[in-house]
Specification:
Elements lengths: L21 H17 L11 H12 L4 E6 L6 H19 L11 E5 L2 H4 L2 H9 L3 E3 L6 H13 L4 E3 L18 H10 L4 E6 L9 H16 L9 H19 L11 H20 L7 H16 L11 H27 L14 H14 L1
Parallel strand pairs: 1-4, 1-5, 2-3, 2-4
């Protein structure tokens, strides 16, 4: 987010129920490769160890069990990449190992209920028609529960979701899982055997790793106006960038720590608490729950302010509109704080090592650049 711009409140699209239509699936399959390359910048997708993946999809088609796909959510591109693997690669790789599908594989993904409010129109159109189901993290949505249970009972396609609850920015580490997956497994078990298939997604920067770090370095210095040490070692460069990013944030969100006595990870932990306290102060929210609880409370308080469901902002009186604009300005500020903390929470110096340049270094550098952005 570059700065904070005033966006007046708009009526929420509310809960958009799934209404699967095969024509939407066909459109997605026809445009998937182009979308992944031009929008997600993925040059190629490979399905490693395809046998258990293809057999699980086939067994679900044959009604041997209800299948739930659990994918590690490390990047924004995860869902479209996995959808491509399900709908295109599984069919192709299945032929090679003797798996014959009775229909083209597909899956119903879970996604944030608020997405249609701010996503591009095409996403708002195609998500429900692909049978995707809106959900609210850490919140009770009766429509979501009903549609998930219906899909687990009746749909010829499996359910796909990120059990970590949100993007974690780590291809090589799994974080705590949300408890909701246990309920879904129990609902599915009401209709027969259930299989949970964990899927790991990882991104390989190939021979572009050095170029990625150099681009990040140039962009970081341009945005901050600060120099970074010249170093041939990725680890030293990234620790320097972490130290200076943390110092910049400590200026805006003082933690009260004596920074020379604390490790970088301890300073990041304190920073996140300081950032969230500032956001909660602006949002008039009391601190409660885990880090993710606090993130979601802020996120959905902002969503309710920017996209109210019970009143249409188009009918506001001038006074109500002025008051709403003021609340939206504050919401933009505390949402910005929650976004900074949300990415910074996943910056762990222990994730990278003093080792030859590898994919973890690229992930880590891009996360730091996201914090600055």
């Amino acid at each position: 987010m570059k700065g904070i711009s005033l966006k007046p409140a708009r009526l929420s699209k509310g809960y958009v129920p799934p209404r699967f239509h095969d024509s939407a699936r066909m459109i997605m399959n026809l445009t998937a490769r182009s979308y992944l390359k031009n929008n997600e910048h993925l040059n190629s997708i490979r399905l490693l160890n395809p046998e258990p993946f293809c057999h699980a999809l086939k067994d679900h088609q044959e009604g041997k069990y209800r299948l739930i796909l659990l994918f590690r959510h490390c990047e924004k591109a995860d869902a479209p990449a996995l959808m491509y693997a399900i709908s295109r690669l599984a069919f192709r790789e299945g032929k090679k190992i003797g798996v014959r599908f009775t229909r083209k594989p597909h899956a119903h993904f879970l996604y944030g209920k608020d997405v249609p409010n701010w996503a591009r129109p095409m996403a708002g159109w195609i998500f429900p028609r692909l049978g995707f189901i809106p959900v609210t993290n850490r919140g009770l949505c009766r429509e979501s529960i009903d549609d998930i249970r219906k899909a687990l009972k009746e749909s010829p396609y499996p359910l796909a979701l990120a059990p970590e609850g949100q993007v974690t920015y780590h291809s090589h580490r799994t974080f705590d899982l949300e408890s909701g997956i246990l309920h879904m497994a129990e609902w599915a078990e009401e209709h027969g055997p259930v299989r949970l298939l964990p899927i790991s997604l990882a991104y390989d920067y190939g021979d572009q790793k050095g170029q990625v770090l150099d681009k990040v370095r140039q962009k970081w210095m341009k945005e901050t106006g600060m120099p970074l040490k010249e170093s041939s070692e990725a680890y030293a460069f990234l620790i320097d960038m972490t130290e200076k990013t943390v110092s910049l944030l400590e200026h805006s969100f003082p933690t009260g720590l004596e920074t020379k006595k604390e490790s970088l990870d301890e300073r990041i932990y304190a920073l996140n608490d300081s950032i969230l306290k500032e956001a909660e102060r602006m949002a008039h929210i009391r601190k409660s729950g885990s880090f993710l609880d606090r993130i979601f409370q802020l996120r959905y308080k902002g969503v309710d302010t920017l996209y109210p469901e019970t009143r249409n902002p188009a009918g506001f009186t001038p006074w109500e509109k002025s008051d709403s604009d003021y609340e939206c300005t504050k919401a933009a500020a505390y949402i910005r704080c929650s976004q900074i903390a949300d990415v910074l929470e996943y910056v762990h110096t222990g994730y990278i090592m003093d080792a030859p340049l590898n994919n973890r270094h690229c992930e880590y550098a891009l996360n730091l650049l996201d914090v600055v952005n």
